[in-house]
Amino acid sequence: MEVIYGLIPGMLLLGLAAVGVLFWAARSGQFDDLEGDGQRILMDDDIKPDDPRRFPGADVED
Amino acid sequence: MSASQASGCFHCGLPITQPTTVRAQVGGGERLFCCQGCAAVCRAIYDAGLEGFYQRTPDGDIFGPPPELPRQLEFYDLDEVQQEFGDISSDEREMQLAVEGIHCAACVWLIENGLAAMPGVSEARVNLTGRRLRLRWDNSRLRLSRILRRLGELGYAAVPFDPGAAELGLQRRNRALLYRLAFAGFAAMNLMWISIALYAGADQGEFRSLFHWVGWLLATPTLLYAGGPFFVGAWRGLRHWHLDMDLPIAIGAAITYCYSLVVTLSGRGDVYWDTLVNFLFVILLGRYLEAMSRRQAVSATQRLLDLQPRAATVLRDGEEALVPIRALRPGDLLLIRPGERVPADGLVEQGTSALDESLLTGEAEPLARGPGQPVVAGSLNGAGALRVRVTAVLRQTQLGRILQLVEEAQASKAPIQSLADQVVPWFVGATLALALLTSLIWWQADPATAVLAATSVLIITCPCAFGLATPMAMAVATGSAARHGILIKQGGALERLSNVTQVVFDKTGTLTLGRPSLVALIDARGLWRANEPGTRLDATRQHWLARVAALEQLSEHPLARALTAFAREHGLADMTLEVTDVRLEPGRGIVGRVDGQTLALGSAAWLESLGMALDKRLASPTDWPGVTLLHLGLDGREVARLLLRDDLREDARTAVDALIAAGLQVSLLSGDRQATASEMAKRLGGITAIAEVLPEGKAAEISRLRASGQRVAMVGDGVNDAPALVSADVGIALGSGTDVSMASADIVLTGNELARVPQALALAQRTLVTIRQNIGLSIAYNLVMVPLAMAALITPLVAAIAMPLSSLAVVGNSARIGGLLKKAR
C-alpha cells in the first residue's frame, strides 16, 4: 500500500492541472458566450480569409 | 424563414402585405420581399456567396427587417473617436461593437464569414449572448466605417462601444465566482474518494492520519479561497448590524473546519472535511447560476443604450470639430445636421427643424423646433440644420435620467423578494440562537456531542434553501424569458403579471402590423380600388394624392407613411409643391396649405371642427370591414375619403385565443372609429373593443379599468402608448429596436411576437407557484430536520448530505420553470 504515498500527490497534481486549465479557459473568455459557441460548432463552413472572389467590390483603401 | 416558406418575405420571414411587395431577381430566381431593405440585404448576401445563411436560419423563425444603419459612419474613422473605444497606438486595432439585428446562430455565421472575407479584417468574432462583435482589423488597409457599412449591407447595425466600468466589473465578478466554483469542485471531487476510503475502513487503519491530513490540505485552501466571499460578507453584515445569509454559512463552515482540525490533531473522532467542501461547492453553484441568469437579462437592455450617438459636431471659433460626447461641456455650440440624432440637451440658437422625440416621449409626431426652444438628447433631427447651445450632457440629460430609471428598475426587487429578505435576518438569528441553545443543553452531558449537535443545527438549518427560494425562481424565469424574447425588466412585474385579470391590446402596430396601405378612394364619382388591375388614377385623384403626400411627408404617423409611400410608388411625389402652415394633431389629423390650397386630412369630427363641410353623398364604406377611414378636405369641403387597411399580425388571433382560454378578459384599445375597431375585435374572437380613444386618453382608459377593480396588463408597440403602459399594472411593449420609450414598459417583447404575451403570463403564474413551493419546501425541511439535529440524532455528516439536497431541491424546482417556454416553442 506504499503506492498510496505516490498516488495522492499525483492525483492532487492532476486535479490542480485540471483546475489550471479551467482557469485559463475562463480567462480567455470561453465561458462568456456559451450559447454562441454551442451553435458555432455545428457550422461546418470554413472561413476563407483574404479571398477577394468572396467579397466582390472590396476596395482596399490605402 | 427559408426559401421553402412561400408566404413570407424571403429574407426576414415577415408576412408580405400586397402593396409593399418587392420582387427582385436574386440568386437565379425571383423572390418576394417585404421591403427594399430586405431585398438589398439578400442581394448583398448572394453577391458575397454567403447564401448558405438561408440554409442555416431555423425554419419558421421570423426576424424583423434589417435595422437602420447609424448615420455618418465616418465619425468612427477618426482617431479621436476611436480612442474612446480601444487602443489606437498601432494600425492593428481591436474593438468591441454592439450589434443590432443579431437573431440566431445563422447571423453569427453570416457576420463572421462576411467580415472575414474582407481583406484587412484579421478577426471577427460574435458573442451571441451579448449580441456583440469583437473585431480586429488593419486600419491602414481598411477603415472602420467600411466595415460598419459592410455590416449594414448584410443587415446589421453596429457601432463601437466602450464596455463601461460597470460591465467589466460584473464580468470580473462572475469570473471570480467561476474560479472559486471550479476550485471547490476540484476539492469536493477529491475529498469524495478520501471520504469513501475512510468510511470503507481506512478509518481504522494505518492511513487514517494521512487521509485526515490530505483532507485538511484540500479543505484549507477551499475554505480560504472559495469560502472567502462568505466570510467577507458575514463580516460586512456584522459591522452594519444586519444578519444576512453569509453569517450562518461562515459560522457553520468555520466551526466544521475547527472541529475537523481538532480531530485531525488529536486523532480522536470523525473529520468533516468533505461536509465543509461540498457545502461551499453547492452554495457557490447556486450563486453562479443566479449570476448567469441575471447577466443575460441585463445585457439585453444594455444593448439599447449602446446604440446612442457617440460623437458630436462642435463649432468652435467658426470651425467644425468632431468630438466624443464625453468631451462635450454645457455651453458648447453644436451643429446638428438633418438626419442626425441630437447628442445632448440644449437650446436652439439658429435654424428650424422638426424633431422626432419618440425615443423619449413615445410621441411619433415630429415637433417643430426653432430658436430659443429646447431639444433633448436622443431625438432625431428632421430636415433642417440646427445650431444648439448645450445645456446638459450625458447622465444629466433627460435621456440619461430615463436610462437611470431603467437601471434602477433592474436593480429593484419584487415585493415577494423583499419579504424574503426581511425574513432572512430573523431566520438567521433563530438559527444561531437554536445552535447556541443546543450546545448549552448538551454541554452538561458531553462537550463533544454539544459541538457536534450545534454544528449540525447550523449546517442543517438551511438558510440557503430559504434564501434561494425566490431569487432562484426569479433568475430562472427572467433568464429563460430573455432567451425566448421576453425581456423582464423588473422582478416585480412578474409578480403583478401573475394575477392580471384583463389584457388590453393597442390596435395599430400591436395587433396589426403597423404598416397600413391605401386600398381604396371614394369620391363623388365612385370608388377606386388600389389593387384592381387595370384601374388607373385619373388626373384629379392624382392631383389630390400628390398634395396629400406632400403634406403627410411632415408626419411620421404610420398612415402618413403609407400615403407618401403610395405616392412614391405611383410617381406622384412632387417635391416642388410648397407646404406651409402645417398643423398636426395627434389622433385627429393634419392640416396645412399646399400650393396655395388648404388641405386637411383626418377624422370626420376634425374636419368639421375646421369648418369643412362633409360631403353627405360620399358612400360610407360599409362593405369595407376593418379599414381606417380618412376624410380629405380641400378648400373648405370634403372631396374624398381614403381607405387604408392595416393587416392583423399573424399570431394575433392565437395570442388572443390563448389568453381567453387562460380565463382572462381581452380588449382592444384604438383611436380608430368604432366600426373599424369592432370589426377587428370580431375577427379576433369577439373581444371587447374600446374605440375612438385619443392618444392622451389611453392612459385614462387604463386607469378607469383599474378603478373598476381589474388588474390590467397593457400591450402596446412602445411608441405612442408610453403613458398607457405606465398606468397599467404591467406594461408590455413590443421591442421596436432602439426605442428607449420601452423604458416605460415593465416587459419588452424583443421579437415582436404577440404569442409571447400568453407565454409571459403562464411563466409569471408558474414562477409565483414555484416560489411558494420553494418556500414551503425549505420551511418543511427545517421543521423536520432542526428538532432532529437539536436532539443530536443527526451527525454533521447526515446534515451535510441533507443540507445541499434541500438547496438542490429548491434549485431543481426552480429550474423546471425554464422548461415551460421550451415546451411552448
Automatic annotation (TrEMBL), chain B:
GO terms for molecular function: hydrolase activity. It is a multi-pass membrane protein. Residues 93-159 form the HMA domain. InterPro entries: ATPase-cat-bd, ATPase_P-typ_cyto_dom_N, ATPase_P-typ_P_site, ATPase_P-typ_TM_dom_sf, ATPase_P-typ_transduc_dom_A_sf, ATPase_P-type_domA, HAD-like_sf, HAD_sf. Keywords: ATP-binding, Cell membrane, Hydrolase, Ion transport, Magnesium, Membrane, Metal-binding, Nucleotide-binding, Phosphoprotein, Translocase, Transmembrane, Transmembrane helix, Transport. Signal peptide: none annotated. Its main location: membrane. It is found in: Cell membrane. It comes from the Bacteria. The keyword Nucleotide-binding applies. The chain crosses the membrane at residues 177-201, 213-235, 247-265, 271-289, 423-443, 449-469, 779-803. SUPFAM superfamilies: Calcium ATPase, transduction domain A, Calcium ATPase, transmembrane domain M, HAD-like, HMA, heavy metal-associated domain. The keyword Hydrolase applies. Belongs to the cation transport ATPase (P-type) (TC 3.A.3) family. Type IB subfamily. This is Copper-exporting P-type ATPase A. It comes from Thiorhodovibrio winogradskyi. The lineage of its organism: Bacteria, Pseudomonadati, Pseudomonadota, Gammaproteobacteria, Chromatiales. The gene is copA_1.
